[in-house]
Amino acid sequence: MTCCVSLRRDRGSVFPSDTRSNAGTDDISVFRKMFTWVTSGEPVIMLIATGNLTTTLAATSLLDERTKSPPGRKPSLLEAPPMFRVDGAVGDTLRDMKTNPQDRSPT
Prior knowledge:
two-stranded antiparallel sheet; two-stranded antiparallel ribbon
């Protein structure tokens, strides 16, 4: 289960979240499920993931690589504003992973 609340303050925003894995009382694990992409002077993009950990880590790694790679690799989150295009870029990455599970290289 993942829960998130955002707080808009005078000096910025705060995004506290609580992510829990499905584990028993004697098996506690911590996994990063909050990811951010930042460009100076531009809006901050934050993704809070739920669901399959393998898919989450693969998708965010691909999005990271596409963002930091040479121009021409698509979709890049930092070139995708407004917000519905960011959503589309994440969706496209997840769809690409599902339809081409063997080819996880950036396009």
